[in-house]
Amino acid sequence: MPKKPLKRICDELNLKGRYVVLRTPMNVPLVNGVIQNQFRITRGLATMNYLVKHEARVILVGHIGDGEPSTEPIAKLLANHLPSVLFSPEVTGSVSRVMRDALKDGEVLVLENVRRDPREKKNDSDFARSLADLGDLYVNDAFADSHREHASICAITQFLPSYIGMNFRHECEELTKARTPKSPSLFMLGGAKFDTKMPLVEQFLEVYDHVFIGGALAHDFFRAKGLEIGKSLVSEVDLTNSPLLYNPKLLLPVDVTVFDGEKSYVSLPDMVQSHEQIFDMGPATLAMLAPFIQNAASILWNGPFGNYEAGYEEFTSETARLIAAATGYSVIGGGDTVAAIETIGSQEKFGFLSTAGGAMLTFLETGTLVGIEAILASKS
């Protein structure tokens, strides 16, 4: 947890009739306006239900993507879970103000996608004030977005008494525990952009008994070892002569799935050709990981091991199945990683599923987020 305690909305005794601006997790995948995955929205329901039960007047703020999709499908979905949900086609403005003023105790108003206003991503103080003018209190329940210095995360806390919601609190508690794992412990990291993740890997090699590097991150290690990686995705970081290459705690794929332009097949890392691309790990790597997963008391995992966009999901899903069958406590995050778990339908077999990807990694590395610091420095 952060060094100083964060104020929780459940500690606020008087909510009846008060306007609460709630920053909630809404960034879900949409296809033709249809929500494909409700995980983040579901996790935000506890705070919404609490505020409604205590007769607050709730103004929901959130984003989907970079601003193009409408949050109206979110409002329609929430109408199935909450007594009275309204939708404003504006973020701020006269329509939002009129609808806000008409709210009754226990009603919820969903604002349009906050990123439709370019001032949101600039952490603009005037825009934050216009959001704050809609409420008496501010609650941040969007842990997954709180590594972003945006107006509805940071600047707004200058103008309202600010609290965290229940999902936010849960994320902080679980990820704080993951920073001090029980032994034997295993940290698995996939995805791409090793240059942004290198400090965390260096730090957790001191904390975890073993660290497995998969996904496109592994390509940087293969390249540094002098192996051919063909057209595979790599980061900007150069690991040549890095002590990471020789750390006995570090685990890398022992086989890979490559695409040669026509078909996919399994190859050894030192047999990849210059015209090929590595898109996933292989079965021997899964077999190598199995005993580490089975024996671990603590498992931490972020990021897929295959190129999800290209359909390489097999070994990420198979890894999830191994963890589901293991007895250790698992903490897992990242959109594609959690999607793999939902695909196999065993959510209850995992210790904690984070709504966050990048925010999870930032918190694990530093123990805080810009959104947390904003709450701590907020108007009393």
- End-to-end distance, in Å? 20 Å
* Architecture (CATH level 2) name of the largest domain: 3-Layer(aba) Sandwich
Top CATH class of the largest domain = Alpha Beta
CATH topology of the largest domain: Rossmann fold
Please, how many helices? 12
Task: Characterise this structure.
The protein is elongated. Strand 12 (256-259) and strand 13 (264-267) form a beta hairpin. The protein contains twelve helices and 17 strands. The model has no long low-confidence stretch (mean pLDDT 95). By secondary structure, the chain is of the alpha/beta class. It folds into two domains: 9-165 and 368-376, Rossmann fold; 179-349, Rossmann fold.
Task: Give a quick summary of the entry.
The chain has 380 residues and is of the alpha/beta class. It has helices spanning 39-53, 72-78, 94-101, 125-132, 166-178, 194-204, 217-224, 283-295, 314-325, 335-344, 358-366, 370-376; strands at 19-23, 30-31, 34-35, 57-61, 85-87, 108-110, 137-140, 162-164, 185-189, 210-213, 250-251, 256-259, 264-267, 277-281, 298-302, 329-333, 352-353.
Give the key terms.
six-stranded parallel beta sheet; Rossmann fold; 380 residues; 12 helices; alpha/beta
Secondary structure blueprint with pairings:
Elements: E1 19-23, E2 30-31, E3 34-35, H1 39-53, E4 57-61, H2 72-78, E5 85-87, H3 94-101, E6 108-110, H4 125-132, E7 137-140, E8 162-164, H5 166-178, E9 185-189, H6 194-204, E10 210-213, H7 217-224, E11 250-251, E12 256-259, E13 264-267, E14 277-281, H8 283-295, E15 298-302, H9 314-325, E16 329-333, H10 335-344, E17 352-353, H11 358-366, H12 370-376
Parallel strand pairs: 1-4, 1-7, 4-6, 5-6, 7-8, 9-10, 9-15, 10-11, 15-16, 16-17
Antiparallel strand pairs: 2-3, 12-13, 12-14
